[in-house]
Request: fold
Amino acid sequence: LSHSGGTGALAQWVLVELQGEVEPRQSRDLSESLLGDLHYTCEGVPVLIVGHHILYGKVVQLEKPFAVLVKQGGAPQPSPTEPHGHYTVTALIKTKLLFKTRPKPIITHVPKKV
Amino acid sequence: AAMRSRAEVDATLQTAKVNPAELLPVVQCLSFGPQAGGGECCLLQLEPGLCAELEAGRSLVIRGEKDEHAVLCSKDKTYDMKIADTSNMLLFVPGCKTPEELNADPTSCNIIHSQIAGFSKNYWELRRCRPKLKKLRKLLMEDPYEGPDSRKDQTSTFSKYTTEDLFSLIQASEEEILHQLQVIDACKIEGYWRILDFDYEMKLLNHVTQLIDSESWPLSKVPLSVCLEELGSLEPREMIEHILLSYGRKYIDDAGEVFFEMREDKICRAIAQMLLRNAVKFNLSEFEEVWQQSVPEGMKTRLDQLQGLALVDKSSRPETIFLLKVEDLPEDNQERFNSLFGIRQKWTEVDITPYIQDLCAEKQTVGALLTKYARSSMLNGVKVYNSRRPIS
Reply:
């Protein structure tokens, strides 16, 4: 049964919200694989290039920030219904990048060889 | 996998027909970190005030046994936890920079590699709730304290609870628990929280009221020191002081002496409970007579002292009164109403209020509860409430 803590200031992370599922291009698992490039326009609009899609989004200051909880001690996966167990608050999230517009597909030619 | 280079990023921009001149110079290449798929991180949406508490270094605790719904407790509040599903993918990225941060920190690098620490399709939502304190009384009633002479304590195998035990077992914040311990007149004996057995409590109260009577003290000025002196041979000093604290208001006079102003309503109420315990119900007028005779000299009994303790049945001839303690009723709103409508089909607002008052959430009124859980009708020109559903 439990909770949070940590000495020193809590880290501030950012949430990136995407529509739908995120799947790796190759069939290997998600770890270590690239999601995409995150740019901002000069006006501060986030632009995310994921695979063959280009996503435009917006920066949102969260009315209700999130705390990121990390389960402690190699216990079995937290069930989605009951959060029993030991948790530590690792970070706070006050900002999110929301990509809600439908992705624009990138029509590719053969990519330039670098 | 090799990290992306700026050149690769630029090539992608070109393919995507995005004009680099319209972009800030820094790109953040996001990839999934090694632990990302592990599902060990989850998101908790914070209600107002909780974020500030965390930043101030204070803790939040998740409490609940396997058979209970988990709640989250801050130092002084309790929240229900519920999973909220979104249809979207939420990625958490440490060190991801916003446009403001990039503009504020002109670095020479034009590429940052950031790792996604985890992702989720859902998060925990919080909703402020009443602390679940019924269990506190239940635990302490497992083994009420019957006094030092009771053999029970020596041979008892019942669990006894320290403050820390209670903090871990009760789904409420520490402040809410400590406050409730005071409300129910619990006391600490040998490091464990105990509730007094009612008969023992009445015995202690009786010692005090008899002493007040024999000393002819005014009810508003009962001296602690004399009580301890006179009664110290009969009962432990801590118990004498405890009963004075429970049934009186402590104050210190100009000379620094400790006195108690006895609480008339609470004493009358306790004596009523003592009388009512002995039968299923009583003839109301007989009860009122005996009750007035049983309370200390100078105290006046009134039926409104018995709110949430006893109920008068005005429909029976003669009118009767019976014990009904709100703390014996279910804690859950719907179950409480079911139970009340099982006892009596139709209630006036005046009668039912003491039995539902404690269910009110932070800004909720009794009226709002009645609208939600009951149906109203008129009976002989009086508004009454009954169940919304048939009671079996």
